Amino acid sequence: MLSLAALVVFEHGRGHSLATQLASFGGRPRGADADAVVGAVTVFAVLIMLVAVTTVAAAAAYLTWLVRARQANSRSASPSPVAWAWLLPGVNLVAPVLLVDEVWRGSRPPLDRRPRWLALLGAWWLAWLTTLALVTVRLSLDSSAGDLTGIGLPELLSASVAALLCACTVRDVTRIQRSTYGARPRARLTGTVTHLPPPPTESAPLGNTG
After folding, report:
1. How far apart are alpha carbons 157 and 4 in whole angstroms?
2. Alpha helices, DSSP H, located in the chain
3. Rg of the chain's alpha carbons, rounded to an integer?
4. Is residue 135 a contact partner of residue 155, using CB atoms and an 8 Å limit?
5. Is residue 67 within 8 Å of residue 86, measured between CB atoms?
6. pLDDT digit string (tens) for 128-163?
7. Four-residue CA torsion sign, 169, 174, 176, 177
8. Cα distance between residue 141 and residue 146, in whole Å
9. Secondary structure element (H or E) that encloses residue 23, with its range
10. Using one digit for the tens of pLDDT, what is the confidence trace for 24-74?
11. Are 8 and 150 in contact (CB under 8 A)?
């Protein structure tokens, strides 16, 4: 979110004028014209790379968590449904939220927390779909708007809300799984130690009758 915020700040402060300059140069400035925009173009390129790298890293971290959360409920759970749910076009508009809800229900949470969870889950997914819709509309209007990316404050605000709500769903599922499964290893260990046979008693040396 910080990298995206930095890109939005640059877009509002320099993006429109830079896009206008590049358009007037035909996209290939030379000589003095190139010197006038090379710094801004470099900053823009660095910000784009930062957004791309941090987005991929965040997506990888989230998918890794989701796979492990499913396997915490069932060790035989395959990671394939997670990949298909998020990467298959069309399916990724519905399947991910259903998958997260399945993980939550599989963690055996208290029944009275269901309404709160559904409200949180629905708010997160609505914010995420809103972000996708805003970005898609902006990209389609980018050429006519004369901006570099078209990403603005509405997209940043929607993405920030979606990220915050997503973090809340991760925290909720993780907390429930820790309370459900956290005591099991200790209980097993305690049971094992309790039922260990007593150590063998050393026999007295022969000839020593005390």
Report:
1. 10
2. 2-10, 16-24, 32-73, 80-87, 95-106, 114-145, 153-181, 184-194
3. 28
4. yes
5. no
6. 999 999 888 876 665 445 566 777 888 999 999 999
7. positive
8. 9
9. helix 16-24
10. 555 555 555 566 666 777 788 888 899 999 999 999 999 999 999 999 998
11. no
